[in-house]
Amino acid sequence: MQAADKKDTFEEIFQQNERRIHFHIHKLKIRDPHHEFYQEGLCALWNAYENYKPDKGSMATYFNYVIRNRLIDMIRKQTREVELMERMSHQKMTELEDGNHVKKHDTSYPLFNMPEMNIADPRLWQQLKVQLTQNQWKWVLFHIIGDMPIKDIAIQENTTVEAVKSWGKQVRRKLRNSMYYEQLSWDL
């Protein structure tokens, strides 16, 4: 190899050292169908050409060092990206397959996970539950107590939004009736 004089252009250096890039790709057992690693090696060769200082050592050794390390850095970067994608994919699959979801039309929706609620008077809610239908109670439980959106209730219960709204209308109608309060034994 010649010393990097200012007479030597990058084209000349490239023609003399292009095989180094291929050598390191082969030596590191890199599959490069899209020539990404070759391009990275080419950039490394350019940077080495620009930054080479003849008093620091042989140009060939410096080129080998820079090209090899840039290729290894690129392998590490791609490996980190693949590991990140695998972790994200695994996390998503865990969320979908943990058993706490409802599938509807090839889409998975999480089930409502109701935290422990502090209900002021459980007896009051129990009396109300006895007087309501199962669907009306679901509306009270999920929408009123659990603050769950109507659309999510419809998905969870595998019904329409209109049906859930209807449950709510029936509950409100019952609660507006003063005779209903007497049945519930509520003193409001």
TrEMBL record:
<dbReference type="InterPro" id="IPR014284">
    <property type="entry name" value="RNA_pol_sigma-70_dom"/>
</dbReference>
<feature type="domain" description="RNA polymerase sigma-70 region 2">
    <location>
        <begin position="14"/>
        <end position="80"/>
    </location>
</feature>
<dbReference type="InterPro" id="IPR007627">
    <property type="entry name" value="RNA_pol_sigma70_r2"/>
</dbReference>
<dbReference type="InterPro" id="IPR013325">
    <property type="entry name" value="RNA_pol_sigma_r2"/>
</dbReference>
<dbReference type="InterPro" id="IPR013324">
    <property type="entry name" value="RNA_pol_sigma_r3/r4-like"/>
</dbReference>
<protein>
    <submittedName>
        <fullName>RNA polymerase sigma factor</fullName>
    </submittedName>
</protein>
<dbReference type="Pfam" id="PF04542">
    <property type="entry name" value="Sigma70_r2"/>
</dbReference>
